[in-house]
Amino acid sequence: MNGIFGTLSHYFTFPFVRYALIVGVLVALCASLLGVVLVLKRYSHIGDGLAHVAFGAMGVATALRLTNQTVLVLPLTMASAVVLLWNGQHTKIKGDAAIAMMSVSAMAIGYLLINLSPASSNISGDVCTTLFGSTSILTLTPTKVWLSVGLSLLVVAVFVLFYNRIFAITFDESFAAATGLNTRFYNMLVAMIVATVVVLAMDLVGSLLTSALIIFPALSIMRVLRSFKAVVVASVVLSVFCAALGITLSILLGTPVGATIVVVYIASFILFSLGGLALGRRRA
Amino acid sequence: MPQLICDRLTLGYEGRIVSTGVSFEVDAGDYVCILGENGSGKSTLIKAILNLKVPMAGKVILGEGLSRAGIGYLPQQTAAQRDFPASVWEIVISGSLNRIGRRPFFSHAQRKQAQENMRRLQVDSLARRCFAELSGGQQHRVLLARALGATDRMLVLDEPASGLDPQITDEMYSLIKDLNRSGLSIIMVSHDTQAALRDASHILHLGNTSLFWGTARDYERSDIGRAYLSRKGMEA
Which of A179, A228, A284 sits opposite B86 (nearest CB)? Predict the structure, then answer.
């Protein structure tokens, strides 16, 4: 036991390990907040679609040789979130088809641009990092850490301030609209926060695994708890715990950070499902 | 001035017109029942009144201190709400959202009012229970308590008795009648003609055109009313 703690405290003397832990925990926190809303609104696939768009935007940023890629990736992802939700209103192309279309287009264009204009000789390494996160979380610059901290705090603040309205549009959008709430505005707000969280999560787990951070905590907690506030609070606690555990395990075992975190989430989901069965709750 | 005026509305969906020339007025304290066959535009009319959908022609005018944010609404239940983790209290208090203005949280007065509405509909003992685990009748009461939080003037109900067993349905109708007696105007879509004639002050019968608008007593004596009632097996 002493050996493990010794190893850990040795690792935590390195700033990049501390950065990874800080950003990882904050991203997990934000993702789980949003996850409750997305899962309940049947929007789980939007997070996934936006993560693919973010990959494409990353390709553009790489081709343009931007040092701070977030300044381009974040606005592009946000714009896509707006387009996706707007498209949902006029149903020429059905919502899920629009998301699928946008995801694959962004992936293809992103990969093409990275190949046409490689930033380093190790293209597949770069692509793999963008898709699965592996090393990007351990190479965070202090600027990036502060940016992540700022954006995370903003996400939490918006969620808390608009908590009651977010509950209303999640539970019953037509009642909210009928009684005078500007549901279109709040849907957009949610889309903006999702885009922000997706971009933040890219560094941690990569674009292919981002969705896991968003949906798993809410799905796990919903197996056992049955009130909105309890689900939100418990999802955040669970998510922070799983992310911290995942990062620590990956350091100790030398495994890829993103994949390790997701495996911890899967394990928690299985545990909570069993817990739910033991409690004899009705399944959704 | 009436609370609500519908002026020569044309109703339809997906570009298809189902009713034209729908005109009527609702005064404070009226109990309006909207009857008609399936697909005659009843739910579309409700959506137009609630500003969820713009009518294809005509206008909905709110008068006498009634604002969009002052109408309570009891929707037809959707399957999406069945597995939603929300407590009864969370749902009832969310009805008062249109009263909080720009503030982020509910005031003490709004919380008190939500508690009062739960007592009025006898769901206060269920406050901490999960909505999805309640019976159909209890869920209807909870949603009605939420609607009361949004208004003290007008309630719009879309088939409030759908999916309820007969005894619970009767309870629901007498609750709605009580709310009407206490001063709320009611606009309700219903398939239940008997209850409509018993409780409503006015009937709106929709077909290809607005087929009838008038008091419930006149409706029973009208040709259209008699024909509809006899088809429903209730000779007037």
Answer: A228
pTM equals: 0.88
Interhelix angle for A44-63 vs A183-205, to 10°?
60
Q: For B4, phi and psi rounded to 5 degrees?
A: -145, 130
Average pLDDT over residues B161-174: 86
B166 to A15, B161, B189, B192: CA distances (angstroms): 69, 9, 17, 11
| Structure-block tokens of residue B28 | 């404070």
- Would the CB atoms of A230 and B85 count as touching at under 8 Å? yes
DSSP string, A63-107: HTT-SSTHHHHHHHHHHHHHHHHHHHHS-SS-HHHHHHHHHHHHH
Query: Which tokens sit at A85?
Result: 């939700």
Query: DSSP letter at A42?
Result: T
Q: How many CA atoms lie within 13 A of A167 on its CB side?
A: 25
pLDDT digits (tens, 9 = 90+) for A257-266: 889 999 999 9
Q: Is the Cβ of B91 closer than 8 Å to some Cβ of chain A?
A: yes
Candidates B80, B86, B97; nearest CB to A227 = B86
Buried b / exposed e over A172-184, threshold 16 CB at 10 Å, is bbbbbbbbbbebe
Which of the 8 DSSP states describes residue B126? G
Q: Which residues of A touch B128 (CB under 8 A)?
A: 227
The rounded distance, in Å, linking the Cα atoms of A258 and A247 is: 8
Nearest C-alpha in B relative to A219: B85
Three-class SS state of A134: coil
pLDDT in tens, A11-61: 888 888 888 899 999 999 999 999 999 999 888 888 889 999 999 998 888
User: Given this structure, which CATH class describes domain A17-275?
Assistant: mainly alpha
Give residue A284's pLDDT.
43
Q: Extract the tokens encoding A26.
A: 């904050």
